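Good morning N.,

You mentioned wanting to compare the apo and holo forms, so I went ahead and generated the holo version with flavin mononucleotide. This is what I fed in:
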Amino acid sequence: MNIWDNLKKPILALAPMEGVTDIVFRQVISKASRPDLFFTEFTNVSSFASEKGRHDALSRLKISPSDSPIIAQIWGKNPEHFSELSSALKNLGFSGIDLNFGCPDRHVNRAGGGAAMIKTPDLAVECVRRAKNSSNGLPISVKTRLGFTYLEEYKTWLPTILSEHPSALTVHLRTRKEMSKVPAHFELIPEIIKLRNEFSPETKLLINGDIKNRAEALKLYQKHPEIDGFMIGRGVFENPFCFKRTEDNLPYAPTKEELFALLNYHLDVFDQNSPQPYEPLKHFFKVYVKDFPGASELRTKMMECKNTNELREIINSYS
Ligand SMILES: Cc1cc2nc3c(=O)[nH]c(=O)nc-3n(C[C@H](O)[C@H](O)[C@H](O)COP(=O)(O)O)c2cc1C
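and this is what came out, ligand included:
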């Protein structure tokens, strides 16, 4: 069974986000409104291949029952290590393997991974092939950008990847150089669809970048019905209920009470999955505590808390 053939169009996926889409936050998003598909944060293939890094790699690949179906996202530049990690993922409960050829992080790119793969297309192809040959039947997908430096790179880069016939290709509509500083290039969607249709019509095409919620994805889908799906990333910070269906197809607007209940749930799931570092939890406060009188003061008090029990006390005294 190939998960990509089982999902109904348009597929809505939560984008992989390092430090965000871990086992805790995925459960929170499931509770608010589940996307059709989850991705893990990216895991380095060479960490998994090393004795020292394997424990950390495996902890990033921990999943909960509510995550399913979920795809493991992996990155690196060593084809042998792509093979090694790909061969382990089926037994860990994943429905697919996604190769990250789009991360713009300087350290990742210096190590030859993420978007740097756009500059070494032969190596990228080798990694796709090695992953495919070792995946025990799990489908392989790729997430990438339009190019490294220049927009026009997409004209050769996307065909290079499509010629390997991945089960799915997610295109973040920017170059690496553009980071996230310019608006996504929605104007190129018809060209990208054309390339998919020409080089690998069976590959599912997902579009990513600046799509905030289900309503926006549906609007794009109406305009380009040949797209198979959409990935939403930062939209969950604005609205963790962004995947929720509504009768009028307008974005779902959660109440303050719903956001507080979700925050309490986040703290519960965080505790259930402890021990884990407390500080990163603070990044999420503004997802839930905003847009009401006193929100900023409450957030300041929350920032001073040292653990989830202190947080609960402060939050419950407000709600
Ligand atoms: C905090 C953060 C972490 C990210 N980590 C990853 C990652 O691990 N793998 C990946 O493919 N993309 C990663 N991305 C990129 C997102 O998946 C997505 O492509 C990008 O945010 C554009 O989509 P959006 O406009 O819907 O946010 C990350 C983005 C953010 C903001």
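DSSP finds 15 helices and nine strands in the chain.

Happy to go through it together on a call whenever suits you.

Best,
F.
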